[in-house]
Amino acid sequence: MELTIHRGTEQIGGTVITVRTPNTCIALDAGTALEGDALEEKQRLSAILGEAADGIFLTHAHPDHAGLLMERNLRSPVYMTEDTQKILLAASLLGNGIPVSRDLVRKLPLGNPIRIGDLSVTAFEVDHSVAGAVAFLVEGGGTRLLYTGDIRMHGIHLARTEELCKAVAGRVDVLLMEGTNMDTQRPDVVKSEGDVHREIAASVTAARGLVLAHCSPQNVDRILGFINAARASGRIFVADVYTAFVLYLLKRRLPDHPALHDPPPYYRTWLNRASAARAGRIWKGDGNFMPLVEHAQVNLQDMLADPGRYVLLFRPSMLHTDFGEKLPEGTTLIYSAWSGYLREEPWKAPWAPVLSQLDAAHIQHIHTSGHISRSDWVSFVDRIGPHMVIPVHTEKPESYAEAFARVHRLADGETFSIPQRNKD
Predict the structure, then answer these.
(1) Do residues 313 and 397 share a domain?
(2) Could you tell me if 238 and 326 lie in one domain?
(3) Do residues 40 and 34 make contact, with C-beta atoms less than 8 angstroms apart?
């Protein structure tokens, strides 16, 4: 079994990996770079994915792992969980992506191996900052490769990662392990998701005016944290259509999520201008959803008339398109995402006019990483007991050797033949 990391040995995101045997070739993830890809790079990686004729296996729906699927020339079958398929559907209808053809999508079972030519692939659900995330155990030629995708142990769903450890401990020859936080020791990185929810609840309770909540609409655990905080403080959580659509699609997995067809008093949605411009797409994607939006809708004028009653899911573009460049007095922003989007190019520009209207006391950064902390990384590797660890999805591959003795570093594009381990 041969492993090639075509991109990802010294960068976070944009992951593209292939696994080959003499008769089979599959890809693990198909990501775009966080800062975007030049046309030549897209073409190069798309050609590599085209060689993975037996299947592309997605760990989750984030663009840095799935963004290249939006290329129109895709022909290989794409294996993903049901939740990942739904999140990609929402992104295609309410973002700028091209939906993956349903004819190419193959639903991944959880915990049960599927046979792809010479290879066996088993998906294990893991905890990450998006629903439907999995790790892959790939077996073939007498060897076993475990690819973690993005994973953490400080989220609400720790049990998923625990089950993975139990299932594969002592059975892994090569652990292809993400290391986003391998060089990070900041306390907020290891803050639990539960702690984040408690801090959000305290901040919402203390606020006096409108609360703007910002997080990814795909981060369902965080969205539910904001909904619960609004409910506990006597406020109404207002989801934009993108967020409401994600929750609607995942309703079977979210038994405690408030339903749009019979919304409780603490949950509403609104048709902001960006969503209204895409309403036709949504009707085509799911004709049952938009009537529910209209049924549970609140308008911006109501929110501005009594801003202290609301927690509004907010994106910076709304300042211009919906708020007329002016936020209500006393507005609090709870920013619950990576801080780099506020301070680094090319992402910070949309936020500048928003932040200029708020004093420091009304900007709350409450967040934790979707990626495993360094200390948990060490614990995870120790529990898996691999013969070898290969760095991926990291800017600090050299730091792996400080935490584990048997590390084998690859360069982008370098092919590695996984040796058979002496099982005696």
Answers:
(1) no
(2) yes
(3) no
Q: What is the CATH number of the domain that holds 374?
A: 3.60.15.10
Task: Report, as an integer, the average pLDDT of 79-105.
Answer: 87
Q: How, if at all, do strands 310-313 and 211-214 pair?
A: parallel
CA torsion sign for 342, 345, 351, 353 is positive
b vs e for 107-131, b when ≥16 Cβ sit within 10 Å of the residue's Cβ? ebeeeeeeebebbebbbbbbbbbbb
- Domain identity same for 17 and 132: yes
Band (pLDDT 50/70/90 cuts) for residue 251 is: confident
Under DSSP, the state recorded for 386 is -
| Exposure string over 226-264, b if 16+ CB within 10 A, otherwise e | bbbbbbebebbbbbbbbbbbbbbbbeeebeebbebeebe
Computed from CA positions of residues 256, 257, 263, 266, in that sequence, does the dihedral angle turn out positive or negative? Answer: positive
Amino acid residing at 203: S
Average pLDDT score, the chain: 92
Q: Please check whether residue 240 is in contact with residue 226, taking contact to mean a CB–CB distance below 8 angstroms.
A: no
Range of the domain at 412: 2-184+370-417
pLDDT at 345: 87
Express each pLDDT in 338-387 by its tens digit.
998 999 888 899 999 999 999 999 999 999 999 999 999 999 999 999 99
> Using CA atoms, how far apart are residues 397 and 226, in angstroms rounded to an integer?
35
Tell me: do 358 and 382 sit in the same domain: no
pTM over 0.85, yes/no: yes
- If one counts every other C-beta atom within 10 angstroms of the C-beta of residue 44, the result is 14
Same domain, 241 and 123: no
**Residue-level pLDDT at 185:** 54
Distance CA 100, CA 94 (A): 14
The order of strands in the sheet holding 16-20 is 105-107, 78-80, 56-57, 25-30, 16-20, 2-7, 415-417
How confident is residue 188, by pLDDT bands cut at 50, 70 and 90? very low
